[in-house]
Amino acid sequence: MSLEAIQFDRSHRDNISVRVLDQLLLPYTTKYVPIYTIDDGYTVINTMQVRGAPAIAIVGALAVLMEIQLLQNDGFAKTQTFYDFSSFDLIRSALSQRLDFLLSSRPTAVNLSNALCEIRALLAQSGDLAAFGNGVYDFVCRLIDEDLSNNVKMGDNGAAFLLDALQQEGFDKDFAVLTICNTGSLATSGYGTALGVVRSLWNDSLAKSQASGDGSVKKRKLNQGRAKMVRVYPLETRPYNQGARLTAYELVHDKIPATLIPDSSIAYRIATSPVPIKAAFVGADRIVRNGDTANKIGTYQLALVCKHFGIKFFVTAPKTTIDSKTETGAGIVVEERKPNEFKHVSGTLIDIQTGSPRVDDKGKPVSASVGVAPSEIDVWNPAFDITPHELIDGIVTEDGVFTKNVNGGFDLSNLFA
Ligand SMILES: CSC[C@H]1O[C@H](OP(=O)(O)O)[C@H](O)[C@@H]1O
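The line above is the sequence of Methylthioribose-1-phosphate isomerase; the predicted C-alpha cells follow.
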C-alpha cells in the first residue's frame, strides 16, 4: 500500500524526477507514472490518475518544472518544433501557451490556477530559462512543503474546534463523523484536508483511550474533554468512487475504524448509527468570497441532511483553495465529466469464488469496466456541486476555523492572498 500520491526526487537539482501514483488502479494496484512534460501533467490530471485540488496544483507545477528541465537539455531542444530557441521572449510566449493548456485540464479546482498564476509571474520577471527554472523549483518545493505542514495544522485546528464545541455542549461520549470523496494523502502532499481532521481526531482518540495504537501514530490529546471519535463513515462518492476506492484505502492503511456507506444512505445512517454522528468534514475545490464552496458532487445534499439532523458541517481547505476574485458560488465553473465515466464502472476484476483480484499471467491485477446504463441514455455528470455558505458551519484552514458572523455571513478577508 502507498499513500504517496506524488514522488518528487529532488536529491539532484539538475536531474529531478517526478512520478505520480495512478489512482485509477487503486486499491488493488500500486503503479507510478513518470511525468516528463506539461503534456504528461495534463494527461494525469485530466484523466484523474491524480486528483484532489492541492495535488492537482502540485503535479501541474511539477510538470512545468520537468518541461523546463527538458528544454535545458540540448538533445531535446534539437528534436522538438514547438519552441523557438532564437530568443527567450519566444520561449516565454510558447511557455505561456503551454500554461493555458495545462490550466484547461480541470477548471473547477482553483489551486491549479492559483499555482499557475504564480508561475506566470515568475515567467514574466525571469531573464532566461535557467532563472525561470530556479524560480519554479523554489516555488514548487515551497508549495509541497507548506501544503504538508499546513495540512497537519488544519487537521488539528478542525479536530480541536469540534472537540471543544462538543465539550461546551456537555457531550462527553464516543462519536462518529462523515466525510465524502477523498481528501487525504492521495489528494494532497500528505495527511490531507478533511481526512487530515479525521487523522487528528483519531490521534486524540488514541491518546484519550490510552490505546496502544501501532506505534506509527503520534497520539496527541487535542482537548481536555472526554468525547472521542471512534468511527468514520466515508461515503462511496459515486460516480468515480473516490470514497470507496481511495478514502477507504487510506483509512484501512491507517487502521482507523471506518464503515463505507452508499451515498444514498446518509439520512438513514445518521438516524440509525450505533454511535452518534456529530459532524461532517468535507474538502473543497474552490471557496469563494462569501464562503460558497465547490466540492465533489454529493456535498450539497450531505450539507442539507446535516442541517436537517442538526449535525455540524465543516469545509476543510488550505488558503490555496480560496478564490478571492469570485463573489459567490454562481461564479464558479462546474466541470462536467464524460458520460461514460458515469455509465461505466471501472475497477479491478474480482474472482467471485475467492473475493481476490483476478491477475494476468504476470501476476498483475486485471482492470476492467462494466456498463451500468444503456449506451443511448443521456446523462448529467457534474464532477462538483456548490454548497451555499448558509449550510456551512465552519471553514477549517491552517489559520484556524472561520465561522459566520451574527448576520450569517463569512468574513474570509484574512485568508485572501
Ligand atoms: C483535498 S481534495 C479537494 C477535493 O478534490 C476532490 O475532487 P476530485 O477527486 O474530482 O479531484 C474532491 O472534491 C475533494 O474534496
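Note on the example: The mean pLDDT is 96. Residues 129-168 form the longest helix (40 residues).
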